Every structure is written in structure tokens, then in C-alpha cells.
Amino acid sequence: MNSIAVTELRDQREGEDHRKVELPESGMGFFPERLYVQTGQAATLILRVALGENERQNATASVISNSPEIIVATPQVTFKPHKTDPTVLEARVKVEGRQVGGEGTVTAYLGRNRAQAIVQVHSKKETLVAPPTRGSNALFTDIKFDDRTDPRQRVYYDRVNSSIVIATAAPSVRIYLDGSNRLDTTVQGQVLLAELITEAVCREIAREGVEKGKYFVLEGSEADAIQNHFIRLQNRYAHLIHQYIVTKE
């Protein structure tokens, strides 16, 4: 969701080759710092390090897990230049989850540098929503299910908390809830969740783009511009959100 927001709202004068990758003070870190993986499946952590005297292209890092429920499928990874930031090297670390509910810490070592990420194992039935990555300007930081929200509006964006809020009391939402009042157990529930998230994400990006001048708009026609960009964004990104959320299992 945030990658869509960045793509749409970043300063168009900034070329791809000038984007800088944010790294922790140590100079090496995992992205994301917390990863959810479905049992029996693999997921990828991105390991990045600042290019320096001791960190050169083709340098190799060692990666381990402190839990038997979290398997590191690539215990040795080789760094390559980042696509848009020549001052950063990156490598892909594949991890696999075994037991549902398992949690462990994955640690990477490169010389004196060390980076850690927390990995949790979830059921295949759950829809995994990735946690926000490092950075303080993420437009979307959370998805909440609230039975106190006015059911006349099934989903809205809470600008104060940067959260997407789904009204579980709405009749068309309530019939798909599981025992935990979440839309995450059936294909039908996953499809509805994807639709609701698409609506909230595209509408908020459209509003942000118009109000901050990222999108061209004629004076006095802001509301029409927001609606037009909302439709454009849905047509452009809805299938990507569905592909990410709907597992078809």
C-alpha cells in the first residue's frame, strides 16, 4: 500500500536514480524488520548495507535463526548494488515457517555489522498484512477492525493514526467475520478485505495527491478531481492489492 502511495505521490522532479535508501545508524538492516510468513511457505527479507571500505559488491553475509520454527533457506547471501541508490548494497534472505505461532529472530553478520529481524509464523488461512517498513512518513501504518465504527461507512481512513478502519458492524462485512471478528479465513472474506482496502487506499491517495498539488486540477473542481483520480487508481492498482491479499486457499 505504501509502495503505491510512494509511486503516486513522490515529487515527480525526483528521478529514480536519485532516491536514497534509508538505513539504520549501524549501516546495515533488514527490510522489513518484522516479517509474517505462512506455515510451509517461504518469504523474503531484504538485507541492506551501506557501501564502505569493508562492504563491497559480492561481499558475503552469514544469516542464522534462533528458532527451530524459523528456517533460513539462504544461510549465506551475496550483496549486489541497489537498483536506485549506488551507496547501498542489498541481498535477499529467504526464510520458511514451520509451526503456526512460532516466532524467532533472524540475524545477519557481515564483518562488524549485525542486523536482526523478527519473523512470525501464521496459518495459511490468515490474510497477512505486511507491517510498515522503516520510515516515519508511511501513509498507511495499520488496518483495524472496529465494531464501534458507524456501519453506514464500511471503511475509512483515520488520518490521525494513519490507519485503515473497517466497520465490522456493517451488514455486508459482518456476515464474513470469523470468531476473532476479522476477515481472514475464507476466500470470500479475503476478496471483501481486498476490495475494502483498495477503496480506502485509492481514495486517500487521490485526496492527498489533489490537496498537495501532486495531481493537476482546475481551481474549483477539487472534488471531481479526487473522484476521477480515485477511479484511475482503482483501475491501475486494484488487481495488485487483490493478488497480495487473496490466497485462493
Describe it.
The chain has 249 residues and is an alpha+beta fold. It folds into two domains: 100 residues, Immunoglobulins (Immunoglobulin-like), CATH 2.60.40; 104 residues, no CATH class. The protein has four helices and 13 strands. Strands 1, 3, 5, 7 and 8 form a five-stranded antiparallel beta sheet that branches. α3 packs antiparallel against α4. The longest helix has 25 residues. About 5% of the residues have low confidence.
What key attributes describe this structure?
249 residues; Immunoglobulin-like; five-stranded antiparallel sheet; 24% helix; flat; alpha+beta; 2 domains
Layout of SSEs?
Elements: H1 2-9, E1 28-31, E2 34-38, E3 42-50, E4 60-65, E5 70-72, E6 76-78, E7 80-81, E8 88-97, E9 103-110, E10 113-122, E11 142-146, E12 155-158, E13 163-167, H2 171-174, H3 187-211, H4 222-245
Parallel strand pairs: 2-10, 11-13
Antiparallel strand pairs: 1-3, 3-8, 4-6, 4-9, 5-8, 7-8, 9-10, 12-13
